[in-house]
Give the backbone structure.
Amino acid sequence: MVDFRKYRTEDRDWVISANLRHYRNVEGFDRSFKDVIISALDHLEQQVMDGRSHFIIADDKGCRVGCIFFSPEDEVSGRVRLFFLTEAYRGHGVGKRMLNQVIEHACQKEFETIRVSTFEQHRDACGLYAATGFKGKVGEPMEAFGRVTRQVDFEYDLSPQSITLGQ
């Protein structure tokens, strides 16, 4: 059974190495991706105690298997970053549970929008976001981390207007 707990600073090395291993070996990203991960974690760790951020580590009997970070971008919008799940745990509802915890947290903290960006070749991630109710927009081809790809920017609307209209 996979449990979720709060991110701790001793999780930092695992977050970096797990992301690097996957994105280099499976996705073919180049060395520049390491700097992006470290920079993102540096930024996120400054927000760990702000009361509006929500950083989760997925843990299976003491073994880290995933992470997701949610932090404010402004007063009404937040962003998901570094959402990662070890391949063996994908397709079993763990990622969906992680994402749903972020959505619940965002609702409780009265965010109106959740944003997340990924790349079109990450079909499982794109599928999860779409199935959860995120609306995506595919960008123009670009070079990122040594590959030509398209970024997909997703948004989840939590505004009072959308909730009222959706009922």
